[in-house]
Amino acid sequence: MELLGAGATFPYPLYSKMFYVYWQATGIKTNYQAIGSGGGQRQLLNMTVDFGGSDAFMDDEALEKAPAKILHIPICLGAVAITYNLPGNPELKFTPNLLSEIFLGNITRWNDKRILNINAHPGLSDRDIVLVHRSEGSGTTFVFTDYLSKVSDDWEKMVGRGKAVNWPAGLGSKGNPGVAGLIKYFPGAIGYVELGYALSNQMPVALLQNKAGEFIRPGTTSASVAANVSIPEDTRISITNTDAEEGYPISSFTWILVFKEQAYRGRPYEKAKALKNVLWWMTHEGQRYAKPLHYAPLPESAVKKAEKLISAITYDGKPISR
What we know:
The chain is an alpha/beta fold. The protein folds into two domains: 2-78 and 252-319, 3-Layer(aba) Sandwich (D-Maltodextrin-Binding Protein, domain 2); 79-226, D-Maltodextrin-Binding Protein, domain 2, CATH 3.40.190.10. 34% of the residues lie in helices and 20% in strands. The chain has helices at residues 12-26, 37-45, 60-65, 96-103, 113-116, 139-151, 153-158, 175-185, 195-200, 220-226, 269-282, 300-311; strands at 2-7, 29-34, 51-54, 70-84, 93-94, 130-134, 171-173, 189-194, 207-209, 215-216, 251-259, 314-315, 318-319. The protein has an eight-stranded mixed sheet. α1 links the parallel β1 (2-7) and β2. The longest helix is centred in the first third of the chain and has 15 residues, at 12-26. The mean pLDDT is 95.
């Protein structure tokens, strides 16, 4: 038997590892296509996949328009890192205002005094800033623009938050791998990627000033701390611009989206059972693979919420035994 999923590139390295280990242990294969959160949501709504992967939760309006009730199963936490390509790749610091002004296109040179005021590095010469962003509907983009909308009134008014937005400036590329590749190609480039993509490509990551005024490095611990909040029963929550003193401000859950009722389009019971079982494994035993790949495992409160949601999955209106 093979399960089919599609969606977010943000958790793809972790999902690849999890699905391989699960296949080796159970013989159940999972084919996951990393096409972006927007694509994952569309394919689930079209009922062409067993599940969708998304870093952006669906809003009330989208859920109401869905053909059936959709559940959001949290799988892990990740950090959206700001990475760049400069001589010597010094470790840089950004305030919320500085970051938003750069991505609004209002700061165009690396030796702008607003950058130099908090970053005294010789690599910050009179060089053009090349902005890089995602070109397709992306949960990583949603998380990043959600953060910028919270910290910058100008950004919220001019651009706003979304899986896809009208960027004021810059070059687009597909997927986290595409953005990382474009940044490495262009000297002076800066962009946003899931932390693991930056680290696996040996790219620098910036420290961001959080709401408490602390400059925080993205990592599994600082992402976990950001999630130290009350999580709603449906787990749809934004944790960007966290109040946590040691929390990294561009952190997010990533979710697998499934239909609560699995008896649709002639799906066999065994496929629904296999889907429920792999989701349970991912939120329990599979959590051990998160930290080695630079993701934060689910906090206990989120695991409890995930258990309730997975247990609520039905086939023909009846619970599915594990």
